[in-house]
């Protein structure tokens, strides 16, 4: 038993080896009490049903009603704002050690390895701040709309939250991905789990007012004003240029709601821009100002950072769209399969160019592929969940997923991506991710060319 | 009759507006911004210098300001990578001539600095003005921004030591930026109109073209890279980053010894987040006593833990001098207990 306690993540031996000889004898001699203590010691990390088969009478969790079945539970509103179970404390946003030296200009990654469906719980949404976050008093927050030139707009206006929330609203599900997601892996494998390889993507239902409504309320001249500058109210007053075409289409909106409640402070409370399909840096948080202009702005985060270095020494500027990408989240790096046999392999796919059309999964490193089931309805520019059956025979395998979006674009391999962009781009790495499974069941991060 | 005339009025507004946008459609929502309000917030500076404030500053003044306000993060010469990526270095006289930083393609650059990348001087001005210094953004006057930028340009050997940068000559400096020709927009990742229609980029054409092959797609699997050993453990105990039930478990990556270290690091993080490290050093006094000094004083006292917990919560004064420790009512009880235990166990 001792070994199992120390290594609850390992592949489980057959039931007869699960208990030590002494313990098996103890069970045989009817010392059930001893067995119960063993289960407690083993902790929740061990699945009880398997162990219980060793007991002649059955599973202790069935034979003896647990406390929650034989006592009074807690009253309503014990937690006025409900929190996850205390048994869910492992799935947290985490930083990648060494990635940034100061927490105010860092990243925390969403624990994709344990999430289901397509909506990221707001409290686990990835974070990227450029100069720390604040919890802004909404009664003092203002949104200003002005022009780089008076001729671009009939009048500059100021809106309060009271006013913005009176306007016609839309609610849409969209993914947001940092342009640097998977950026640590451009040159080689660098991090162990999907949380750190892909955890700078999240997906929420956002609610707010189309930016178009506000610009038209100010009397924008679309002929002249072809760009929008979005600016935050944080210390960095983060700015990015957004094309007017995306505003005119009605896609871009000024959001206050996220997953049924107000935005979380770390995600821009009380106002952020939603720019579907475009990298997260453009979704300006704590949005305080929109300027319409006739030229792009070359702001710090589109002229020093968020530019993609190519092998010829040139940097791609204004690269914004997040191209089709996917990743298997279960099983994934840093996990160990419990046993041979059936597994539901599950993952996420998304594209900044529209809907996901198909996801294929390979178990042999990309030699043969099988089309996965897509969980619908498939949303535009949103995370899309896929699942596929797999019976693991205990032999080594390499799992991959490959997304195809509605434009017909097929997610590239590392070899294809590096051929055009080299290994130092940092941003926009949408290569096919590979997870290697070895005989012990341990899954690790590898790159297949 | 009243209603009728109002309809007429709205109709008249519609027809009068050539842009055809009904400004009054959302009545009672928003108000016109005052000129002072727009001036207060509209601080952006574009590559064509629209928005640039008038002013000037010289290299020497910039050096003083940089030492005072910037060097603690960026190093005296903008070279430090301790906190942020370096600002200065990595370019040559030839780069200034060509407008392309050669080190970017030759692979000779150990690390890209701001000036090896940036193609527009407006970007640097705009950013210093809006976001610096790190802990007091927007506190610099326009002349100070010019001075600091002049100093950086001098560090980069773009301007001489007696240079005065101003709104009058910044466009000339633009022509000397080492990587001014280093940007391309010939890509498919701009979501607006393409360059040929007055926008940016090639109209969304991707640069890779994978095929959705299904069977016998390649003769063999080439592994390019596997997880290095150090990376397996660098992210802490992976077992604890996964559920303890379900189809998989997190792989155990650390032994108990390493797990203790990771927990200590977590507590240091908690101490930093809670604001403790602003006044207390691990070993020595900053404003309040160092943690090892605390341990020494309370050694052997059985009630040390409870006394310290009370002190952290309520604040205190007199034990270590006259500067009071503020109360920390905002911290959770369990966090205070964790911190005190950590301090008494010889905080590492």
Overall description:
- The complex is a heterodimer of chains A (449) and B (348).
- Chain A has 449 residues and is an alpha+beta fold.
- Chain A has 3 domains: 2-69, no CATH class; 103-315, Oxidoreductase, molybdopterin-binding domain (Sulfite Oxidase, Chain A, domain 2, Alpha-Beta Complex); 325-446, Immunoglobulin-like (Sandwich).
- Chain A contains 11 helices and 24 strands.
- Chain A has helices spanning 2-6, 15-18, 21-28, 32-42, 48-52, 60-63, 161-164, 194-198, 211-217, 244-248, 414-421; strands at 107-108, 127-128, 142-147, 157-160, 170-177, 201-210, 227-232, 239-243, 253-258, 261-262, 272-274, 287-293, 308-309, 315-316, 325-330, 335-337, 341-350, 356-362, 370-371, 373-374, 384-392, 397-405, 434-437, 443-448.
- Chain A has a 5-stranded mixed β-sheet with strand order 4-3-12-7-8.
- In chain A, strand 13 and strand 14 form a beta hairpin.
- The longest helix of chain A is centred in the N-terminal third of the chain and has 11 residues, at 32-42.
- Chain A is globular and about 85 Å long.
- Chain B has 348 residues and is mainly alpha-helical.
- Among the domains of chain B are: 56-174, Cytochrome c-like domain (Cytochrome Bc1 Complex, Chain D, domain 2), CATH 1.10.760; 256-316 and 326-344, Orthogonal Bundle (Cytochrome Bc1 Complex, Chain D, domain 2), CATH 1.10.760.10.
- Helices cover 39% and strands 5% of the residues of chain B.
- Chain B contains 15 helices and 6 strands.
- Chain B has a two-stranded antiparallel ribbon with strand order 2-3.
- In chain B, helix 8 (121-131) packs across helix 9 and helix 14 packs across helix 15 (333-344).
- The longest helix of chain B is centred in the C-terminal third of the chain and has 18 residues, at 256-273.
- Chain B is extended and about 75 Å long.
- Residues 1-20 of chain B have low confidence and may be disordered.
- At the A-B interface, strand 3, strand 4, helix 9, strand 7 and strand 8 of A face strand 1, helix 2, helix 6, helix 8 and strand 4 of B.
């Amino acid at each position: 038993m001792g070994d199992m306690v120390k290594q609850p993540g390992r592949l489980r031996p057959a039931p007869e080896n699960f208990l030590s000889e002494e313990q098996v004898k103890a069970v045989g001699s009817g010392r059930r009490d001893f067995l119960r203590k063993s289960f407690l010691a083993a902790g929740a990390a061990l699945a009880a049903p398997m162990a219980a088969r060793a007991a002649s009478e059955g599973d202790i969790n069935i034979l003896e009603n647990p406390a929650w079945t034989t006592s009074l539970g807690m009253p309503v509103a014990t937690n006025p704002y409900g929190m996850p179970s205390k048994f869910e404390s492992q799935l947290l946003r985490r930083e990648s050690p060494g990635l940034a030296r100061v927490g105010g200009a860092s990243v925390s990654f969403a624990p994709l390895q344990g999430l289901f469906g397509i909506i990221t719980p707001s409290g686990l949404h990835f974070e990227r701040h450029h100069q720390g976050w604040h919890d802004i008093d909404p009664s003092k927050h203002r949104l200003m709309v002005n022009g780089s030139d008076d001729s671009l707009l009939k009048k500059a206006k100021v809106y309060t939250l009271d006013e913005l929330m009176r306007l016609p609203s839309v609610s849409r599900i969209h993914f947001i991905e940092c342009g640097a997601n998977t950026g640590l892996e451009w040159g080689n494998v660098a991090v162990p789990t999907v949380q750190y390889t892909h955890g700078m993507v999240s997906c929420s239902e956002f609610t707010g007012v189309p930016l178009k409504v506000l610009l038209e309320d100010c009397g924008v001249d679309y002929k002249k004003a072809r760009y929008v500058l979005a600016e935050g109210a944080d210390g960095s007053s983060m700015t990015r240029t957004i094309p007017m075409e995306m505003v005119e289409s009605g896609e871009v909106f000024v959001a206050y709601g996220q997953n049924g409640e107000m935005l979380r402070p770390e995600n821009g409370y009380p106002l952020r821009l939603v720019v579907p399909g475009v990298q997260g840096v453009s979704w300006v948080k704590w949005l305080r100002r929109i300027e319409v202009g006739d030229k792009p702005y070359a702001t710090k985060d589109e002229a020093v950072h968020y530019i993609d270095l190519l092998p010829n020494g040139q940097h791609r500027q204004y690269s914004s769209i997040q191209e089709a990408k996917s990743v298997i989240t279960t099983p994934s790096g840093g996990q160990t399969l419990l046993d041979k046999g059936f597994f539901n392999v599950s993952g996420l796919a998304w594209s900044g160019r529209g809907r996901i059309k198909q996801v294929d999964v390979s178990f042999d490193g990309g030699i043969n592929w099988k089309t996965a089931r897509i969980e619908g309805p498939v949303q535009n520019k949103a995370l899309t969940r896929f699942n596929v059956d797999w019976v693991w025979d205990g032999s080594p395998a390499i799992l991959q997923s490959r997304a195809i979006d509605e434009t017909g674009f097929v997610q590239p391999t590392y070899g294809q991506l590096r051929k055009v962009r080299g290994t130092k781009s940092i941003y926009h790495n949408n290569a096919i991710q590979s997870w290697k499974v070895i005989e012990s069941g341990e899954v690790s991060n590898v790159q297949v060319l | 009759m009243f209603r009728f005339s109002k309809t007429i009025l709205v109709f008249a507004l519609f027809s009068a507006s050539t842009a055809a946008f009904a400004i009054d459609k959302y009545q009672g929502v928003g108000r016109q911004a005052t000129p002072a309000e727009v001036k207060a917030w509209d601080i952006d500076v574009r590559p064509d210098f629209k928005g640039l404030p008038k002013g000037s500053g010289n290299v020497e003044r910039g050096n003083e300001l940089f030492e005072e306000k910037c060097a603690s993060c960026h190093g005296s010469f903008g070279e430090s990578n301790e906190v942020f990526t370096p600002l200065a270095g990595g370019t040559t006289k030839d780069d200034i001539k060509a407008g392309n930083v050669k080190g970017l393609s030759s692979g000779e650059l150990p690390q890209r600095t701001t000036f090896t990348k940036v193609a527009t001087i407006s970007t640097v001005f705009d950013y210093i003005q809006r976001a610096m210094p790190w802990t007091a953004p927007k506190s610099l006057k326009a002349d100070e921004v010019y001075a600091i930028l002049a100093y950086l340009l001098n560090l980069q050997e773009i301007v001489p030591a007696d240079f005065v940068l101003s709104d009058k000559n910044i466009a000339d400096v633009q022509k000397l930026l080492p990587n001014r020709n280093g940007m391309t927009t010939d890509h498919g990742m701009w979501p607006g109109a393409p360059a040929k229609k007055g926008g940016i980029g090639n109209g969304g054409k991707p640069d890779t073209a994978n095929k959705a092959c299904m069977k016998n797609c390649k003769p063999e699997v080439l592994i390019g890279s596997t997880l290095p050993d150090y990376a397996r453990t660098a992210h802490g105990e992976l077992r604890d980053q996964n559920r303890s039930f379900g189809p998989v478990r997190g792989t155990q990556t650390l032994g108990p010894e390493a797990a203790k270290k990771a927990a200590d690091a977590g507590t240091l993080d908690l101490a930093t987040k809670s604001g403790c490290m602003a006044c207390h050093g691990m070993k020595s006094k900053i404003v309040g006593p160092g943690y090892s000094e605390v341990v020494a004083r309370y050694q052997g006292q059985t009630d040390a833990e409870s006394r310290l917990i009370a002190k952290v919560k309520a604040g205190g004064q007199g034990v270590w001098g006259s500067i009071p420790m503020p109360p920390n009512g905002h911290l959770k009880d369990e966090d205070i207990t964790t911190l005190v235990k950590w301090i008494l166990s010889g905080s590492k």
